[in-house]
Design goal:
With 329 residues, the chain is an alpha/beta fold. The protein is 31% helix and 23% strand. It folds into two domains: 170 residues, Thiolase/Chalcone synthase (Peroxisomal Thiolase, Chain A, domain 1, 3-Layer(aba) Sandwich); 150 residues, Thiolase/Chalcone synthase (Peroxisomal Thiolase, Chain A, domain 1). It has ten helices and 13 strands.
């Protein structure tokens, strides 16, 4: 029995209108535009408006993806939201998205794989489509990180921004086009590198947890950097090897935008020309699970991605969780 390949039918993205520049941050904390740009490549990031929620951003990105895919929300079979900053701990962000879209047929749930969440979501959607259990799946990466950042910690607050990205996945009617494979990994032994330690069962919300800022992002940036440089090239090579391909076959590399130095180092190690890699980190910062679908949407809307092009994707985030995927666009 030949299983149906899944194809991304539409992409969409959204970023709040308020932009926080490096010059703005210079007025808040002990940092500088030059320091931030040199170490991260980030020049500005978007910050959600007061009262704006993660599901609000997710819906805006979803509407654009659905319009491109010519899919009515009522046609959706399932909705997957990748996020570490949902509207509330329970219920899922995805059910709020479902209600706001009017996607009454779809079942909806969240996944938590930090910056790799959208890649994990794409893989899950692919399995449902290949098995015939779903025809239209909405995958969203949405993060409102400005509310889980310690704005007094200059090592983390300069990095993150708020945004959402989405794609609609469905069966491919062309056997030469679609998701070829996804390769996912986790290493819980490295979990302490990037965490929000407070607010769960280990450190329940309390005055002490809040006073110590344990409900905010904590990161060992040096170790995350080293870990990413070690595993990301291997993840892409793993995906290529599964299909007997070499890095030279890649037409486009679409990646989570965590740090420009990480991206450039991985691209150089693979021997892929830098111009094949989509970069937008200077305009958004690290938007975690939203990053990869935003990059995919921008490359798609600029007409970079042509039918049949080999698109390689990679992402890494807290967990540690990472992975790669190959798609014939």
């Amino acid at each position: 029995m030949t299983l149906t390949q899944s194809l991304i039918l539409g992409t969409g993205s959204y970023a709040p209108s308020h932009i926080l520049t490096n010059q703005d941050l210079e007025k808040i904390i002990d940092t500088s535009d030059a320091w931030i740009v040199e170490r991260t490549g980030i020049r500005e990031r978007h910050i959600a408006a007061e009262g704006e929620t993660t599901s609000d951003m997710a819906v805006e990105a979803a509407k654009k993806a659905l319009a491109m895919a010519e899919t009515d929300p009522a046609e959706l079979d399932m909705i997957i939201v990748a996020t570490i900053s949902p509207d509330m701990p329970m219920p899922s962000c995805a059910v709020f998205v479902q209600a706001k879209l009017g996607a009454t047929r779809a079942f909806a749930f969240d996944i938590s794989a930090a910056c790799a969440g959208s890649l994990y979501g794409l893989s899950i959607a692919d399995q449902f489509i290949r098995s015939g259990q779903a025809k239209r799946v909405l995958v969203i990466g949405a993060e409102l990180l400005s509310r889980v950042i310690n704005w007094n910690d200059r090592t983390t607050c300069v990095l993150f921004g708020d945004a959402a990205g989405a794609f609609v996945v469905g069966p491919s009617n062309d056997p030469a086009r679609g998701l070829m494979s996804a390769h996912l990994h986790s290493d819980g032994a490295a979990a302490n590198m990037l965490t929000i330690p407070g607010g769960g069962s280990k450190y329940p919300q309390s005055e002490d947890v809040i006073a110590k800022q344990m409900h905010k992002v904590a990161m060992n940036g040096r170790e995350v950097y080293k870990f990413a440089l070690r595993v990301l090239p291997d993840a892409i090579l793993e995906a290529l090897a599964a299909h007997g391909l070499k890095p030279g076959a890649i037409d486009h590399l679409v990646t989570h935008q965590a740090n420009v130095r990480i991206i450039e180092s991985v691209v150089d190690r693979l021997g892929v020309p830098r111009e094949k890699c989509w970069l937008n980190i200077e305009r958004y910062g690290n938007t975690s699970s939203a990053s990869l679908p935003i990059s995919l949407d921008e490359a798609n809307r600029e007409g970079r991605l042509k039918p049949g092009d080999l698109v390689a994707m990679m992402a890494i985030g807290g967990g540690m969780a990472w992975g790669s995927a190959l798609m014939r666009w």
